Amino acid sequence: MINFIRDIDTERFIRMKFKLIIISALLSFSVLTCGCGKDAELTKYEEEVTAFIDSVGDIKLQMEEIDINSDSAIVDTLICLDQMQEQFYLLSEMDVPKEFASVESLADEASEYMTEAVAIYHEVFEADEYDAANADVAAQNYDRAMKRLSYISTLLQGELPEDENLIITEEEVLDFEPVTEE
User: Fold this and answer.
1) Are 48 and 93 within 8 A, CB to CB?
2) How far apart are the C-alpha atoms of 48 and 26, rounded to whole Å?
3) pLDDT digits over 109-163, tens only?
4) Does 127 or 175 have the greater pLDDT score?
């Protein structure tokens, strides 16, 4: 079974690891929202996103420390992926303040893609025979989850994501509450 890990294309395994760029971008969200007369909902969301960032960062470090030549490499990788899936689920369940309403559906999609990726990785690594096609499908779902997380981090920084495959539609807001100092 350890041959499964060795047979994985090195580039795919590296792509599977969480990228520090995303964590750095999400940390910018904390800076963006701090100290500006926040309300309780925004404060709670900031704390939840910060906890998500910390947890995912810890999982990323665990994944980077896995020795792919060890007997426990597959089990250790699957445990990290399960933890990553749980964090993405928690992200999708967060109550998103209206200031970041566009993030909610992206978080749901990211969680769905991560759930699918982890399920397929379990199938691939727990099977008697390595299935490269399924491993590729798992990697694609993982990449889609990470792409949505990248979009989320960009939006939380107050910017619009740039991607040739992304269509952004702007809606006219007719019902809004102006921001006032208290």
Assistant:
1) no
2) 12
3) 999 999 999 999 999 999 999 999 999 999 999 999 989 988 888 887 777 777 6
4) 127
Cβ neighbours, 10 Å, residue 108: 16
User: What integer pLDDT is reported at residue 87 of this predicted model?
Assistant: 96
d(CA 159, CA 175): 22
Q: Which two tokens stand for residue 50?
A: 């910060």
For the chain, give the number of residues: 182
Cβ pair 135, 10 in contact under 8 A? no
Q: Among candidates 73, 81, 23, which has minimal Cα distance to 52?
A: 23
Tokens at residue 173, please? Answer: 């807001």
Helix (H) or strand (E) holding 128: none
Please report which residue ranges of the chain form alpha helices under DSSP H. Answer: 2-7, 10-16, 20-33, 40-64, 73-93, 102-126, 132-156
Instruction: Give which of 149, 7, 4 is closest to 76, Cα–Cα.
Output: 4
Measured between alpha carbons, how far is 116 from 113 in angstroms, rounded to an integer? 5
Tokens representing 103? Answer: 């993030």
DSSP character string of 70-105: STTHHHHHHHHHHHHHHHHHHHHHS---GGGTHHHH
